[in-house]
Write a structure and sequence with these properties.
Structural class: mainly alpha
Strand content: under 5%
Number of strands: 2
Helix content: over 70%
Strand order of the largest sheet: 1-2
Order of helices and strands: HHHHHHHHHHHHHHHHHEEH
CATH architecture: Up-down Bundle
Number of helices: 18
Shape: globular
CATH superfamily: Sodium/glucose cotransporter
């Protein structure tokens, strides 16, 4: 059985490396090509790259696992994400693509902010780059945890070996091919992920042991009246926390950097249509997997020790080894597409916003590409240290990093693109306020328990505090004359 699985996985690995080599030959001659693909992504590649880099291992592990345990009430997260993603494509995508090129051809988010607010450029670049590296180390660790769980659960191997293998494969094509390699592999991986999430629920329901939709609904409703309810057991704070996931989209550097790389602004509507279609199909598949997977487990007396391994367990039980290998590849695709994007954005910030600025003499393009590759490796190794605990939860790590980015960068990006009165001092205030609020909210445990009840997701107070700080400090007008009209 293992032979067929390894054949499918080997074919997948070779495809990823092949894409990396192709991208290396085509688009790594300069830092703009290595970090942004020469701003020449087609709408389809940009859309699926944004989606695949967004929907990490949590889409196939964390979200189905949460639904498996708690039922449809957890699907409010998917609703909030869908709304947030759509607004991100409408508000941020066209403006960011146009303004990052207009403001001195910025290659990174910190670079754009520095060019947009020149009087605070150095501080903005430094603070935002530090925040990016810190939260991406945590975010990358969540992907490595998912890879470790895959190898431990599917093959009975070492968890840490799975973590290192996952990182090693990602490093090969990311270090070699840069942004173009990451974007092209994301496109392929996004197609694989969506196909797997369509196939898996259908097979669960149609196999003889699944019992069909009717029996699945009867089994679930008989188990717990609240399992199939969107509202039962959901408090106001819980609903707000779930919907607030959508706020995170405006501040995710590894997602919005795809907007900067789209070929031209006129391509954004087509990219939005492709990206949102992909996202809706994938989220419906993930929700269906969690719900119908629970029905399958109840019908067949299947014990799932770790709910986040539901996709892995059912892949092994229900499919031919060659297909199982393909499904494992889909999970690896979800993991790797996000990890590679995060590593590259972290590398870009370290290279463009710290190394280049600290150099006393101008760096050559070849030197910057080399430093970028070394930075990818360094951030990956830090993520390995964070991911070393096999009891880590994918969804928990993702939620913390998602909130950190959403609160620190979300209000900052929206207002920088749409509000001409925003100042550099206001930008710094919002950036720091959002990040610190999220960190303190987590440290004080307020995301778990608030006034003796359910905790409020840290992105809510962080996003609000950042927005208020930007507006108040900007209106104070300490450096009002320095901004460039947006």
């Amino acid at each position: 059985m293992q032979t067929g699985v390894w054949i499918s996985l080997a074919a997948y690995f070779l495809l990823m490396v092949g894409i990396g080599i192709y991208a290396w030959r085509k688009s790594t001659a300069s830092s703009e090509e290595y970090m942004l693909g020469g701003r020449n992504l087609s709408p389809q590649v940009a859309a699926l790259s944004a989606g695949a880099s967004d929907m990490s291992g949590w889409l196939l592990l964390g979200l189905p696992g949460a639904l498996f345990v708690s039922g449809l009430s957890q699907s409010w997260i998917a609703v909030g994400l869908s709304i947030g993603a759509l607004l991100n494509w409408i508000i941020v995508a066209p403006r960011l693509r146009e303004q990052t090129e207009r403001y001195d051809n910025a290659l990174t988010i910190p670079g754009f902010l520095g060019n947009r607010f020149p009087s605070r450029a150095g501080l903005l670049r430094l603070v935002s780059a530090i925040i990016i590296v810190i939260f991406f180390a945590v975010y990358t660790a969540s992907g490595l945890v998912a890879g470790g769980k895959l190898f431990a659960s599917a093959f009975g191997g070492s968890y840490m070996a799975g973590v290192l293998i996952t990182l090693g494969i990602v490093l090969v094509y990311t270090v070699i091919g840069g942004f173009l390699a990451v974007s092209l592999t994301d496109f392929v991986q996004g197609c694989i992920m969506m196909l797997a999430l369509v196939v898996m629920p259908i097979v669960i329901l149609t196999t003889g042991q699944g019992g069909g939709v009717g029996q699945a609904a009867d089994r679930l409703s008989g188990m717990d009246d609240s399992f199939l309810s969107l509202s039962t057991g959901v408090t106001a704070i819980g609903w707000i926390s779930a919907m607030a996931w959508g706020l995170g989209y405006f501040g995710q550097p590894h997602i919005i950097v795809r907007f900067m790389a789209i070929r031209r602004v006129s391509d954004v509507p087509r990219a939005r249509a492709v990206g949102m279609s992909w996202m809706l199909v994938s989220l419906i598949g993930a929700v269906s997997l969690g719900v119908f997977g629970r029905a399958y487990a109840l019908r067949n007396g299947l014990e799932i020790a770790d709910p986040e391994t539901l996709f892995i367990v059912l892949s092994n039980l229900l499919f031919h080894p060659l297909v199982t290998g393909f499904l494992y590849a889909a999970l690896l695709a979800a993991i790797m597409s996000t990890v590679s994007s995060q590593l590259l954005v972290s590398s870009s910030s370290l290279t463009e916003d710290i190394y280049r600025r600290l150099r006393k003499r101008p760096a050559t393009e070849r030197e910057l590409v080399t430093v970028g590759r070394l930075a990818v490796l360094a951030v990956g190794l830090v993520a390995v240290v964070i991911a070393r605990d096999p009891d880590s939860q994918v969804l928990g790590l993702v939620s913390n990093a998602w909130a950190g980015f959403g609160a620190a960068f979300g209000p900052l990006i929206i207002l920088a693109l749409t509000w001409p009165r925003m100042t550099g001092t206001g930008a710094v205030a919002g950036l720091i306020t959002g990040a610190v609020t999220v960190i303190l909210w987590i440290a004080l445990g307020l995301n778990q328990t608030l006034l003796g009840g359910d905790g409020l997701y840290e992105i809510v107070p962080g996003f609000a505090a950042s927005w208020i700080a930007i507006v108040l400090v900007s209106r104070a007008g300490a450096d009002r004359g320095e901004y460039r009209a947006a």
